[in-house]
Design goal:
Strand content: 35-45%
Number of helices: 1
Helix content: 10-25%
Radius of gyration: 28 Å
Order of helices and strands: HEEEEEEEEEEEEEE
Number of domains: 2
Shape: elongated
Structural class: alpha+beta
Number of strands: 14
């Protein structure tokens, strides 16, 4: 018994069906991957804010979360991502002497490694490789920061608050006595004003490339401040939810993929 072979038309129909199925499979796979990336980015932001709220409630002190957008490469194929940094308060700058940011009331030597030396005795040949950032904690600030050495020093300053001895009128004591206090040594750009509260990072995240906190990607390489979210000691949050935006395929524009719920529960 003879067998009937496939005709050319039948083969073309089969190939067309297989091609259509392949296209649908690829499109579905891409949509699935995109959805997973969107959910992962939103979950990461939500987790950071949950941790920040818990820290504020445990410490009974406000926490500030700084949102930035970083553009790492510009041109026809730009690359960058959003960055979030959660900062807890440490102290307040009571004096600024050149590159030394002094906190005469902070027990910094109990928290950070100390040079155990006055500033004038610190070697000028130390490497700048060991550094950390302290952030200016202002409600209306833009998340500015200063790079300092990880080890604090004992630095002599004129006491700005502490008055000892005879401080009565005509007593001859104007409160200008030299005291040795803990100080950060600045090794980068930026500045603090006397009285500024400062804090250090305790949690951070970087969104995947192409995901930003701002409504539009930065236009030049560098970091752009987007927003500051303040979480009070009782867990209440200033502002509203934080949008997460993603770069559209083959485009330089962004679309919102979701919002992290950072409002405190009523």
């Amino acid at each position: 018994m003879s067998r009937r072979a496939f005709t050319l038309i039948e083969l073309m129909i089969v190939v067309a069906i297989m091609g259509a199925m392949a296209v649908m499979s690829v499109g579905g796979y891409r949509a699935l991957v995109k959805g997973m990336k969107n959910r992962a980015a939103l979950t990461a932001v939500q987790t950071l804010f949950d941790a920040a709220r818990q820290r504020a409630e445990i410490d009974r002190r406000k926490v500030m979360v700084y949102l930035y957008d970083d553009l790492l490469k510009s041109g026809e194929d730009p690359a960058g991502h959003g960055t979030a940094i959660a900062v807890r308060p440490v102290g307040r700058i009571s004096a600024v002497d050149g590159n030394y940011l002094c906190d005469e009331f902070g027990d910094l030597d109990q928290v950070y490694a100390s040079e155990n030396s006055l500033a004038g005795d610190v070697s000028a040949n130390r490497s700048d490789g060991s550094r950390m950032r302290i952030y200016v904690m202002k409600e209306n600030g833009n998340g500015s920061y200063v790079d300092v050495r990880t080890s604090i020093v004992r630095h002599p300053i004129s006491a700005s608050y502490i008055i000892s001895g005879d401080s009565s009128p005509g007593g001859g004591d104007d409160g200008g006595k030299l005291i040795s206090c803990c100080a950060f040594e600045k090794i980068g750009e930026g500045s603090f004003d006397v009285g500024d509260a400062y804090g250090t990072e305790f949690a951070s995240l970087e969104l995947p490339d192409g995901y930003y906190f701002g409504a539009s990607a930065p236009r030049s390489v560098g970091r752009t401040s987007v927003r500051v979210v303040t979480i009070s000691a009782d867990g209440s949050v200033s502002g509203g939810d934080v949008p997460v935006n993603a770069m559209k395929v083959s485009s330089t524009s962004l679309e919102e993929v979701g919002r992290a719920k950072v409002k405190s529960a009523d």
